[in-house]
Amino acid sequence: MAPAKRVLLPQPIEQEAVAVLQAANVEIVTAPDKRTETVAPLLKGVQGVILRTGVFFSKELMSQADELQVISRTGAGVDNVDVAAATRMGILVTVVPGANTRSVVEHALTLIMSLMKQIPLMDREIRRDNFAIRFKNLPRDLNGKTLGLVGLGRIGSELARTCRQAFDMHILAYDPYVAPETRAAVKGRVEFCDLEKLFREADVISLHIPFSPETQKMIGARQLSWMKPDAFLVNTSRGGVIDEGALVQCLRERKIAGAGLDVFAREPLPEDHPLKGLDNVILTPHTAALTRECVMRVAVEAARATLDVFQGRKPDGLVNPEVLTQPRWQGFPTV
Description:
Blueprint: E1 6-9, H1 15-23, E2 27-30, H2 36-39, E3 48-51, H3 59-62, E4 70-73, H4 83-88, E5 92-94, H5 101-116, H6 119-127, E6 146-150, H7 154-167, E7 170-174, H8 180-185, E8 191-192, H9 195-201, E9 204-207, H10 221-225, E10 232-235, H11 244-252, E11 258-261, E12 281-283, H12 292-310
Parallel strand pairs: 1-2, 1-3, 3-4, 4-5, 6-7, 6-9, 7-8, 9-10, 10-11, 11-12
Helix pairs in contact: 1-12, 5-7
C-alpha cells in the first residue's frame, strides 16, 4: 500500500474542507502559527499545501520542501505565491476560479449603493440628532447611471450583468486582455472603451484587475483627475493597483465624491494611515470574499484540487500548466 499523502495547513481551514481530505485518507499537518520560521520545517515530507492569504510562499520557503507537488490557493489570486519559482521547482500552483465571484460582486455592489445612498453619512448624522439631513437630498439614484469597469473577468462581467438588469445602468469596460468569447457574449450590453473615456464618463468606477508589475499603481493621479467630481471609485481587487497617496490627496481635496475600498497596498491598514481620517471613504478589511458561505466553498474546492493532483487528475484552476512538461510529471494528464 502506498504511504498516505501529507498536506500542510499553514493556517486553519474550514472543517468541511478538512473532512474532504480525511475522507481520502490524507494526513494533515497543521502549523501552530503562520510565521515563516514555523512553517518552513513543517514542509519536509509534505506533498501538498493548502494556502490562505496569511503566508507568502517564496522561493526560499519552497526550497525547504523535498516532496512538495502542489500549492492549492483558497481563492482566485496568487500574489502570495512566487509562481515562477514554483514552476522552476516543478510544483503545481492551483486556484479556485469563480468560487468567490458572487460574494465579491455582492460586496462591490454594497459599497456602490452605500456610497450612492450616503449611508455612512446618514447614519452619523442621525446619531447626532440631525434628522433634518434628510432635506438636503444627498442620496442619489443608481438607476440609469454609468458604471465603469476596469477588468471584465468573471467578477466584472457578473457585476455588469447585475447592474444592467437591476438598475438599467450603462456599462463601460476597459480590459485589453478580455477574451474574444467574452467580448462577443456581452456585445450590445457592454461598451468597450479606453481608460480615459471610462474615467471621464462613469458615475461609479469599479476595479476588478489582478495585481502584477503591469497593474501596480495603474490608477494614479492622472487617472483620478479624469473623474467627474460627483463620481465614486470602488476597489475590491487588490490595493496595489491604486496609488494610495494620490487617492488620499484626491479625497482630501474633494475632487471626487468618495471611494469604497476593501483592499489596500499594505494590510492590515497601518494605525496612522490617512484614509482612516477621511469621511468620504468607506473602508472594509479585505472581506469581500470572506462570507461564511464563500470561505467554506473555496476551502473545499482547494482541498479537492489537491486531491485531483494526488489522484492523477489535472485540476481546473491550474495556474502553471507548463510544469506538466517536466520529467517529474511524466504520465500526468495535460488536458
